[in-house]
Amino acid sequence: MADYVFQKEKIEELLGGMAKNYEVHAPLLNAGIVRFGKVEEGGPALAKLDDYSNSSVPPKELLFPQTETLFRYRLGTGGIEPKVPDAGAKVAVFGIRPCDAQAFAIVDKLFGWDYPDPYFQNRRKSTVLIGLACSSPCSTCFCTSLGGGPTNDEYLDVAMYDLGNEIYLKTVTEKGDELCKSISDLLEEASPSHLEACQNQSKEAASKIRRSIDTNGIPEKLPALYDNPFWEQFSDRCLGCGICTYLCPTCHCFDIQDEVEVFDGRRARMWDTCMFEEYTRHASGHNPRPTRKERTRNRVSHKYSYFPTNFGVIACVGCGRCIKYCPVNIDIIDILEKSIAVEVKEAG
Amino acid sequence: MMDESNPYLPYEVEIKETWYETPGERAIKTFKVDFVDSSVWDTWSHKPGQCAMVGRLGVGESMFCISSSPTEEGYLRFSVMKMGKVTRALHQLEVGDTMTVRGPLGNWFPVNEWEGKRIVTIGGGIGQAPLRPVINYVRANRAKYEDLTVLYGSRTSADLCFQEELECLISEEETTCHLSVDVEEESWEHYVGFVPNLLMDVSPSPENAIAVTCGPPVMIKFVTQNLVKLGFEPEQIYTTLENRMKCGIGKCGRCNVGHLYVCKHGPVFSYAQIKDIPEAFA
Ligand SMILES: Cc1cc2nc3c(=O)[nH]c(=O)nc-3n(C[C@H](O)[C@H](O)[C@H](O)COP(=O)(O)OP(=O)(O)OC[C@H]3O[C@@H](n4cnc5c(N)ncnc54)[C@H](O)[C@@H]3O)c2cc1C
Ligand code: SF4
Ligand code: SF4
Ligand code: FES
């Protein structure tokens, strides 16, 4: 695999070069919110690379849109027209953080088991991830506790390091190689000093991560704490707004709805959240998760126990968004720490 | 089988016959349907206990068990209780109308593993729908099973589904069939009382037996307790779980009890599998 550099001031030129062969998505700054979107003339401005440690809305929406048509139909005449995205399209995601890329590798497992999901998988196949290492993580980041790290390139196709005036770029996969070759006229060769600067940055960035959790044994412990009264304390101030799940890069739950305009209809899926009351309410009115206590327990247990039981990996990458954006400061690390503590007490 | 390349696409089916099983606000209507594209039968195969998403374009789809046994050929059957949006829209349909079917989904009763055993089914209300394919499968493969006992009850005699077939079960020699209603009514010749009490009254032996129970959650709870009292091991007791569903293929998230997705790991579970998962009884 190869490495390159380019001048940071030439970022727009670089994205322009990419756009010749790829549909390019990058972090955009719109009304103070950083969110990935298609780079378009007249659209929101590109966020500066040091404007965001992490985007407010995770780029999961690029592979799993907030609302997505599954198929269209015309009432009365029959016939169903699937709307599956083209796996052969070429999409580049520029500036994705390592944790958000890791999240794709986690939900890959769910969208791939039993009945592979062609909507997610085709987008995944067509997408090249050009990641950006974090040099100044947020105070809520804890990626190093979940097998990741601010400069982890494991789940990227191309890894970028912001070295001040220059961006260092390293290809990780063949897909990434192919992309870099397509813009090679805009890239310069890297030197050993660049590599050294990156290595220093990696060490420094990791040392800036302030929060952590020892996840060892948590998946096995949580089911035993199902009836513990502390779930009530953890959730008593929860507003049930769902932010912690909508903004979580590994949350993948959805609803399916039909929409009809005279005779033209579509069946679509849209993000849903286990923090809402209707999510599990039966048609009889019975609800197996009637209060926020059960719903908070499910959110945490799903990520830290049920998902690892099914897929062998915790469904959290430590991006910290659920902590940062919860309006009432409910903190998943805090919940996990207290869970561990309680068990120790019971065992002792 | 379902369209492997896209598990969200349903088949269109035409209603061949339809009738009401029970009256009232929560009426149950049975539909016998056939695929509009008859070539679907070349790849279709389902097992007793499997489900499908049944719906109407423009309204949506809901999960129902396929209440016909695979031994009944040329059609699928669904029995639908009128509950909300989708079920109301389905109830409006008549012979010749189309609906959609996406499936078969989920696991099934391991009727092959049960060969050589005595089968006891214990149903309540609409819960007889998933038991019907088991009963008819065993009846069609009589030599493979030691015997068949059917226990079925509902609130009143008008709420019993599949009445004509129940007459058959009662009159046929190879099957033992006991019916019950919750409260006394005129000219009712069978048991009066709740299904868990009927079970104790009949007291089937656990010897070489498999008990399968479906019905309202409270009924399942007490039936299971009583089966244990009668000496059934958790491995000998089977049930189905129900939860709200959207995708039916283990993706949309909502149907889980603990780490088990009811749509994918279930809906059929042995009591041994779920007895330590409190959410299964929530
Ligand atoms: C594995 C499985 C197998 C099943 N098999 C069968 C079967 O064989 N036969 C059968 O009849 N059913 C079966 N069900 C149940 C069936 O799926 C539901 O009754 C059905 O989904 C109701 O859908 P609906 O669209 O009519 O209700 P909806 O309108 O979709 O209900 C949606 C929501 O609206 C509200 N709502 C609507 N109506 C009511 C109401 N009357 N009371 C309170 N709230 C309401 C509730 O919030 C409910 O959650 C099965 C379910 C599962 C999971
Ligand atoms: S659970 Fe919280 S910290 Fe973990 S990935 Fe989701 S939003 Fe990020
Ligand atoms: S973000 Fe906070 S308040 Fe909102 S649902 Fe999540 S835990 Fe509850
Ligand atoms: S119904 Fe979607 S996961 Fe089970």
Write the layout of secondary structure elements.
The complex is a heterodimer of chains A (348) and B (282).
Chain A: E1 3-7, H1 11-19, E2 23-30, E3 33-38, E4 45-46, H2 60-63, E5 67-74, E6 80-82, E7 91-96, H3 98-112, H4 118-126, E8 127-132, E9 158-162, E10 166-171, H5 174-182, E11 188-189, H6 192-207, H7 218-221, H8 230-235, H9 243-246, E12 254-261, E13 264-271, H10 292-311, H11 321-325, H12 332-347
Parallel strand pairs in A: 2-7, 7-8, 8-9
Antiparallel strand pairs in A: 1-10, 1-11, 2-3, 2-4, 5-6, 5-13, 9-10, 12-13
Chain B: E1 11-22, E2 28-35, H1 40-43, E3 51-56, E4 60-65, E5 76-81, H2 85-91, E6 98-105, E7 118-124, H3 128-140, E8 147-154, H4 163-171, E9 175-181, E10 191-192, H5 195-202, E11 209-214, H6 217-229, E12 237-240, E13 256-257, E14 260-261, E15 268-270, H7 271-274
Parallel strand pairs in B: 7-8, 7-11, 8-9, 9-10, 11-12
Antiparallel strand pairs in B: 1-2, 1-6, 2-5, 3-4, 3-6, 12-15, 13-14
Helix pairs in contact in B: 5-6
The structure holds flavin-adenine dinucleotide, iron/sulfur cluster (2 copies) and FE2/S2 (inorganic) cluster.
Share of β-strand residues of chain A = 15-25%
**CATH architecture tag of the largest domain in chain B:** 3-Layer(aba) Sandwich
CATH class of the largest domain in chain B: Alpha Beta
Biggest interface pair, residues each?
A-B, 51 and 41 residues
Mean pLDDT of chain A, to the nearest integer, reads: 93
**Overall number of structural domains of chain B:** 2
Order of helices and strands of chain B: EEHEEEHEEHEHEEHEHEEEEH
User: Terminal Cα separation of chain A, in Å?
Assistant: 52 Å
Q: Label the structural class of chain A.
A: alpha+beta
Corresponding CATH superfamily of the largest domain in chain B = Nucleotide-binding domain of ferredoxin-NADP reductase (FNR) module
Q: Could you estimate the helical fraction of the residues of chain B in percent? A: 10-25%
**Gap between N and C termini of chain B:** 32 Å
What binds here, in terms of ligands, is: flavin-adenine dinucleotide, iron/sulfur cluster, FE2/S2 (inorganic) cluster
What's the count of strands of chain A? 13
- The percent range for strand residues of chain B is 25-35%
- Indicate the percent of residues in helices of chain A: 25-40%
Instruction: List the uncertain runs of chain A.
Output: none
Cα gyration radius of chain B (Å): 18 Å
Mean pLDDT of chain B: 94
